[in-house]
Automatic annotation (TrEMBL):
<dbReference type="InterPro" id="IPR012338">
    <property type="entry name" value="Beta-lactam/transpept-like"/>
</dbReference>
<keyword id="KW-0378">Hydrolase</keyword>
<dbReference type="GO" id="GO:0016787">
    <property type="term" value="F:hydrolase activity"/>
</dbReference>
<dbReference type="InterPro" id="IPR001466">
    <property type="entry name" value="Beta-lactam-related"/>
</dbReference>
<protein>
    <submittedName>
        <fullName>Serine hydrolase</fullName>
    </submittedName>
</protein>
<dbReference type="Pfam" id="PF00144">
    <property type="entry name" value="Beta-lactamase"/>
</dbReference>
<feature type="domain" description="Beta-lactamase-related">
    <location>
        <begin position="17"/>
        <end position="387"/>
    </location>
</feature>
<dbReference type="InterPro" id="IPR052907">
    <property type="entry name" value="Beta-lactamase/esterase"/>
</dbReference>
């Protein structure tokens, strides 16, 4: 069931991974870890489909959802490095049409750290092909924000992709997917794609998603909505406010006709949604973050200057997040950083130390840690219930850091 290579130092990690597959908790998954430029763990196992008939391979691609945001953030950082984008400038400098209806003073950094107040579509997600870029960017361009830009943090679950992606297109002329492919993926041999070519569809694992019952979502501490505010400390007040405020439902709104199989559709895979539909292998993501965590260059090819990465992974916003249940989650310029909501069971991925990267709603997580020279990625194709979204990943990360601390 389990294939690949594991350095003897990390055999306890292999045991956790193997148990997740062999117990059938995960249908299919992959795990890769780089340490100081060396691939020390490269494991895969299980199946690409619900019927468990098609084996997961080393080069299996899977939709990693919001892990894509970290890849998009890498593209943004490269544009900053190259002097084409300034996070302190107004968005309207690069995208003039955006500066209307209360968005006139929105900064580039507001979009990148989820403070733009644009975490949803005012009139619902457009019922258009996912490949029709302007059908999504123009409504965002024209609408008013839900909150005053810069005033609060609210996770832009889907809209981040079109907002950040349009900035890339405006300053460079290429889409995010094309930019990443040309500037990073091909030169460095990273098997990750935002906008999948049809020739790669056969390598894809099916995403096995759950119906999202937004009216009855079960979260740790859900009963808190019935407690009066005067009984609650600040963090729990923030949690209650976000739980009852409705921003989660706006940010994660769906389209009635899509159903839970749309992530496996031709249209979704072919499209570029730079917040949510990147497809790649764990090995590819670990390599990307391994490069970033070890000077941002490899084999004579530089992605950016290390000081630009330092700028990008500095905390720009630290909550409370009005979408993510009032958590004190931290964001850099598109990268997810350490945050305290991880203490709430496995609802959130473990992010600690100097980790930067992103997690996805399907359970995938990828990050780098420049202090330890680590690049890490866990990918999977079965979405679990909300309270256990990141159970397998968190077990792996906890064991990884216990080993690293001992060594």
């Amino acid at each position: 069931m389990i294939n690949g290579h594991c350095d003897p130092r990390f055999l306890e990690i292999k045991e956790i991974f193997a148990q997740a597959i062999q117990s059938k908790y995960e249908v299919g998954a992959a795990l890769a870890i780089e340490h100081k430029g060396e691939l020390v763990v490269n494991l895969w196992g299980g199946y690409k489909d619900a019927a468990r008939t098609s084996s997961w391979e080393e080069d299996t691609l899977v939709n990693v959802w919001s892990v894509t945001k970290g890849v998009t953030a890498t593209c943004i950082a490269k544009l900053i490095n190259d002097g084409l984008l300034d996070p302190s400038e107004k968005v309207s400098k690069y995208w003039p049409e955006y500066g209307c209806n209360g968005k006139e003073h929105t900064k580039v950094s507001d979009i990148l750290c989820h403070r733009a107040g644009m975490f949803g579509f005012q009139n619902g997600i457009p019922e258009a092909s996912w490949q029709d870029w302007e059908k999504f960017t123009i409504p965002l361009e024209l609408q008013a924000p839900y909150r005053e830009p810069g005033s609060s943090q609210g996770y832009h679950a889907l809209t981040f992709g079109w907002l950040a992606g349009e900035l890339v297109r405006r300053v460079d002329g290429r889409t995010v997917g094309r930019f990443f492919k040309d500037e990073i993926a091909i030169p460095l041999g990273i098997d990750f794609h935002i906008g999948l070519e049809e020739s790669n569809f056969a390598r894809c694992a099916d995403m096995l998603m759950l119906e999202m019952d937004t009216d009855n979502i079960k979260l740790p501490g859900n009963a808190i909505r019935y407690l009066p505010d005067f009984l609650l400390p600040r963090k729990l007040k923030n949690f209650k406010s976000a739980l009852t405020g409705g921003n989660f439902l706006i940010a994660f709104q769906g389209r009635p006709g899509d159903g839970i199989t749309y992530p496996n559709s031709f249209d979704w895979r072919k499209a570029e949604v730079p917040s949510a539909n990147g497809h790649g292998s764990a090995k590819a993501l670990a390599k990307l973050y391994g490069i970033l965590s070890n000077g941002c260059s490899r084999d004579g090819i530089s992605i950016m200057r290390p000081e630009i990465l330092d700028q990008s992974i500095a905390p720009y916003s630290s909550g409370p997040d009005t979408v993510l249940f009032g958590s004190d989650i931290q964001f850099g310029l598109g990268f997810e950083l350490a945050h305290s909501i991880a203490s709430m069971s496995s609802l959130s991925p473990t992010f600690m130390n100097k980790m930067f990267g992103h997690a996805g709603v399907g359970g995938a997580v990828a990050f780098g840690d420049p202090d330890l020279g680590v690049g890490y990625a866990f990918t999977c194709n079965k979405q679990h219930q909300t309270k256990n979204l990141y159970k397998t990943n968190n077990q792996l990360v906890d064991k990884l850091y216990s080993i690293m601390q001992i060594s």
